[in-house]
Write a structure and sequence with these properties.
With 301 residues, the protein is of the alpha/beta class. The chain contains 13 helices and 14 strands. The strands form 3 sheets. Strands 9, 10, 11, 12, 13 and 14 form a 6-stranded mixed beta sheet that branches. Strands 6-5-4-7-8 form a 5-stranded parallel beta sheet. The two termini are 39 Å apart.
């Protein structure tokens, strides 16, 4: 399990009208009302994905002050909400003003402010940043239980797996794929534990991965990319709205570039990093599958 945190939620006991929840395997207690939460604040996009899948529209979202990062399929199901700022540094005063009855926060990003969040409302800590695809689905089930919507979430997850299996039958798997994000800081490929890699594996596709690396995100040079030598490179560019990161333009002028399989096959494709990297949930995974079906990876029959 990620970060030593065993994924799971159990109802421990009712004490003085409060439902005591315990994240199994971690010393994190969550005291909350017996009534299912109605005013939920989420501090990561994967938690937003899960909450919306369970049929709840959160009152507060850490959307990095960029509402366009929320996937259209999720935006269509949202009511009015208040941005609570950056995922890495959410605005505690704004969160408190929303009077939430549940906050869902990231173990890695928000452990340091857990006490402050818990002072505002019952807070559930789960791993999002760097979490694997299957672990994120497991956490969606945890969130469904915390919302009192376990049955709805279970139905969503079953339907999701059925759709993913259908997508898989429509994709050929004879080439190696790699997903990376680019920015002013360079290129970071998504390794074996990363969400997108897990989605590609679930779809039965082959992944070109950094040799020996078990990190979710690995910053690489052109020479390291050439060593992986994928047939396909899917690139999420966080600077696309500003004209795009220049790293690929520089690499394409390098004498090594024409020898890469992705260059010879002309299989470099820009994709939305919001779907492939940030969303990290049911909706993001299915958008990745749809993006792949729009390429020549789709079976012709």
């Amino acid at each position: 399990m990620q970060g030593g945190l065993k994924q799971g939620l159990q109802v421990s006991r009712v004490v003085a009208g409060l439902l005591l929840l315990w994240v199994v395997g971690a010393n994190i207690g969550v005291a909350g009302p017996v009534t299912p939460p109605q005013r939920v604040v989420v501090l990561e996009y994967s938690f937003l994905d899960a909450v919306v899948a369970a049929g709840v529209s959160p009152v507060g979202i850490a959307d990095d002050k960029k509402p366009g990062r929320i996937l259209p399929a999720i935006r269509r199901q949202l009511g009015d909400y208040q941005s609570v700022g950056l995922r890495g540094q959410p605005d505690l005063e704004t969160i408190a003003s929303l009077k939430p009855d549940l906050i869902i926060a990231d173990t890695r990003r928000h452990q340091g402010i857990y006490t402050a969040l818990q002072d505002i409302a019952p807070t559930l800590l789960l791993l999002s940043y760097g979490a694997e695809y299957q672990a994120l689905l497991d956490d969606a089930r945890v969130i469904g239980k915390a919302l009192g919507r376990a049955a709805q979430m279970d139905a969503q997850l079953v339907a999701h797996q059925q759709r993913m299996s259908q997508f898989a039958t429509r994709l050929r798997s004879d080439e190696q794929l790699l997903f990376a994000v680019v920015s002013a800081r360079g290129m970071a490929v998504h390794g074996r534990p990363a969400f997108a890699s897990g989605v590609l594996h679930r779809l039965g596709l082959n992944i070109a991965l950094p040799a020996g690396s078990q990190q979710p995100y690995v910053r690489v040079s052109l020479e390291q990319l050439a060593a992986m030598n994928p047939d396909w490179l899917f690139v999420g560019d966080y600077n696309a709205a500003q004209g795009g990161a220049d790293i690929l333009r520089r690499w394409q002028q390098h004498p090594l570039w024409p020898f890469l399989k992705l260059s010879r096959k002309q299989q470099l494709l820009n994709v939305d990093p919001n779907s492939w990297s940030l969303a990290r949930g049911i909706y993001g995974a299915e958008q990745i599958a749809q993006d792949l079906l729009a390429t020549s990876l789709a079976r012709s029959n």
